[in-house]
Amino acid sequence: MMSEKPLQASCADFRDGASAPGPVHSAQKDIAVTENEPLSRHTTLKLGGPAAKFALVESRRQLDGLIQNGGQLRIIGGGSNLLVRDDGVQGTVARLSGQEFNYIRQDGSCLKVGAATPLQHLVNTAAEMGLTGLEGLAGIPGTVGGAAACNAGTRDGALGDVIIRASVMELTGASGWIEASEMKFEYRRSSLKGSFVTDLELMLGRGRREEIAEKIAAIMKQRRASQPYGRRSAGCAFKNPPGDSAGRLIDAAGLKGFRIGGVSVSEVHANFFIAEKNAKSSDMLELIETVRERVNERFGTLLELEIEIW
């Protein structure tokens, strides 16, 4: 259900452009579509076959046109938690791009953000503005839209904690704003999954820039020390089971460094699976299933996948 209920006063200025969620540009370009685009170019794992069609979408009008054309349509963000199979995908894969989807606007403690905005740019910009609440997302790759759909986060907080509204487009053609009260955010899951998120409104707190920057620096230092930073991975492969850690279970099963083909379990953090230059998606799929089976055999815990597979 989509609604147009009044917002908190601190975000009221954004209501002036309610019919056009983000920046509007009068000139409309033809949508850029390529055929057999390797999706390995668009994921952090750098694995996977081609998309039958790949579209760079720069406006809501273009996105609406793709939806109206029918057929299978997927949207890719930063590709940071995605594994594409070796044979690729049918239909059209769309990526939001350009100023209409990549922007940050401020109204007091409220930020309005386009879905194509890199998540780290948002974290850093909020810090520069003296706004707190996003520090826990420091170091997480990807775009704001993708982060909202999977409720990206860490023990220090998730994006869903600060979302107050989302503008979405549906495959049915419906579009509009969804209020926080109509959304559901859980651990690495949200009710926005399956919708095309185009814009978000976030409510943050006020803080001292120096303190926010120090917290981000501390989080980044810890992350670089405890994760295989800079290696080809899709982040955590599995969700943490209640009261435990997927990485601890994988490590305790003796699987750190375990290799299949061109992929392996990280020696730094066992819940990160690393792809080398000769890796294939089939190697990663086999590694995922093997690790899940070994952990289940050893501890009776069936790990739930965190990364998405196309």
- CATH class group of the largest domain: Alpha Beta
Mean pLDDT, nearest integer?
Answer: 90
What sort of overall outline do the alpha carbons produce when their principal axes are compared?
A: globular
Order of secondary-structure elements: EEHEEEEEHEHEEEEEEEEHHEEEHE
What profile does the largest beta sheet have?
5 strands, antiparallel
Please state the second-level CATH architecture of the largest domain. 2-Layer Sandwich
Overview of this structure, please?
There is one protein chain. The strands form seven sheets. Strands 6-7-15-11-12 form a five-stranded antiparallel sheet. The protein is built from six helices and 20 strands. The chain has three domains: 122 residues, Uridine Diphospho-n-acetylenolpyruvylglucosamine Reductase, domain 3 (2-Layer Sandwich); 65 residues, Uridine Diphospho-n-acetylenolpyruvylglucosamine Reductase, domain 2 (2-Layer Sandwich), CATH 3.30.43.10; 81 residues, Uridine Diphospho-n-acetylenolpyruvylglucosamine Reductase, domain 1, CATH 3.90.78. Strand 11 and strand 12 form a beta hairpin. The chain is globular. With 310 residues, it is an alpha+beta fold. The protein starts with 31 loop residues before the first strand and ends with a strand.
